[in-house]
Amino acid sequence: MPAEPEVTHLDDAEHLQVLGYDDSFNRSMSLWANFALGFTYLSPLVGVYSLFAVALTIGGPPSIWWIVIVGCGQLLVSLVFGEIVSQYPIHGGIYPWARRLWGRRYAWMAAWVYIWAMIVTITAVAEFGAGFVASLFDLELTPGVNLAITLGLLLLAFVFNFSGTKTLARVAQIGLAAELIGVIGLGLYLLIFQRKHDFGIFFDTMGVEGDGSYAVAFLGAALAGLFLFYGFEACGDVAEEVSNPAKRIPRAMMMTILVGGVSALFSFGGYVLAAPNLEAIVSGEDADPIPGILADTLGPVGAKIFLLVAITAFISCVLSLQAAASRLLFSFARDGMIPGHTWLAKVSPRNKVPTNALIVACTVPAIISVLIFLNGNLLVPITSFAVLGIYLAFQMVVLASLRQRAKGWRPAGPFSLRGAGVVVNILALAYGVFAIVLIARPGESGDVFADWVVLIGLGIVLVTGLAYLFIARPDRKSSAPEGDAIAVAEAIRTRTGATPVRR
To answer: Which residue pairs, CB below 8 angstroms and at least 24 apart, start in 212-220?
Structure first.
């Protein structure tokens, strides 16, 4: 095999200097805090609770296997991202990665789609969390109550984020503990002490296929995993606030996928095995079964305690989403690529956080929440759009990475897949295209708008993004580096004095 430079490590400030930026943030986030941020963004508790009934209705108990399938696919994506962030440990994640791997206009579209997907995700998580708060206080969840609680959750997360990186890290770690108690702890309890079915139930379709093929039903249940496994990229969104990010963030991303996947399996599996009337859930008669399962297995007091744990997890999830979105907006603005970039790129001298970007990451979801208050039917379509947009933005980065590899790029960060990088990159892209097709498939209700609303939403975002790009030409206003993956890799190797090794 030909010689390949051994990847060594620059210190954080020098690494940023090579990439063209100054070290202007407090690096107070540890590996565990960074992992907590990604894990609470991914939030298996939120994902499983939101999709449990839908997945069982469509695919029956075997829909649990989508957690394994999607987890493996997204692990491949996280490995690709790991090599990228190890060379480019800078704020913003998707945007700077796409820019440095491809170019300004390509990065503009990736970031435009991703920003809107994240903003909508913040809204959706806060909306779903409102139901838990209402249940805890025995409030009737009217549209007005739902709006008030949603706005309260958004504001609370903003206050925590505004307080600085240390507060963000602490709350994320508390959220991590809540998630682990709420998914692994509860899941194990249900599996061991409250099991009402045997494990063979996960191979029993329970007739969901009707007279057709179960393969169609199983593909329809893919959202059980697809809506769950994203958030790990948030570990890279705050790269400039992490100590030794080139080594730690790839590990945090993979930990997020692995621990999140195991947690989701325990949670989903525990609910299925403990369900007192699984047939009613699969048939669709019980559209919100988890409260009933909790009341049956934990009792009234135990159910209230779980609600407290769940609310903590939801708050932490909104907090992590806001933090990731604000860093992406800051990164976009720092390069002059978005309207109001001078204002959005400001960093608080006291708290060392992008305060104006945080304001946007709180205010726009609040506005969308008001629109949902006016039309409650908007929540499910915008949630579906959020997931599709995030997967599309992910794969734009994966594609850009493969393109650079074809040009001869060998990632120069301390995390390296070495010779396996190309194979992993191709498999990650193939998985991503498969996932996008599954998410984007139109429905079969017969209502044209309802069946195509997710693609319509994505089309609007793409068209408006392209229109702004070619009319306002923000790419011409930015002189930040682009398409420099090979040059930066060589610069890093030159600075570290990397020596060739034989493989």
So the answer is: 217/58, 217/59, 217/60, 218/59, 218/62, 218/63, 219/438, 220/58, 220/59
The pLDDT assigned to 410 comes to 94
CATH assignment of the domain containing 365: 1.20.1740.10
Q: Which two tokens stand for residue 410?
A: 């060998």
Residue 485 lies in a domain: yes
What digits encode the pLDDT tens for the residues 102-144? Answer: 999 999 999 899 988 889 889 988 988 888 888 888 888 899 9
The residues pairing with 4 across neighbouring beta strands, listed in sequence order, are 501
Residue 188, judged by CB atoms within 10 A of its CB (0-12, 13-18, 19+), counts as middle
- CB contact at 8 A, 390 and 118: yes
Helix (H) / strand (E) element for 310: namely helix 290-334
Q: How far apart are CA 422 and CA 313, in angstroms?
A: 37
Query: Domain for residue 264, yes or no?
Result: yes
pLDDT number for residue 305: 87
Classify residue 383: in a domain, yes or no.
yes
| Cα three-residue angle 385-122-153, rounded to 5 degrees | 145
The structure tokens listed for 463 are 């068209």
Amino acid at 107: A
> How is residue 6 written in tokens?
């051994």
Q: Do the domain assignments include residue 503?
A: no
- Rounded to two decimals, the pTM is 0.86
Segments forming the whole domain that contains residue 87: 4-497
The total number of structural domains that make up the chain: 1
Q: Is 285 exposed, middle or buried (0-12, 13-18, 19+ CB in 10 A)?
A: exposed
Q: Are 63 and 224 in contact (CB under 8 A)?
A: yes
What is the DSSP annotation of 443-454? --SS-HHHHHHH
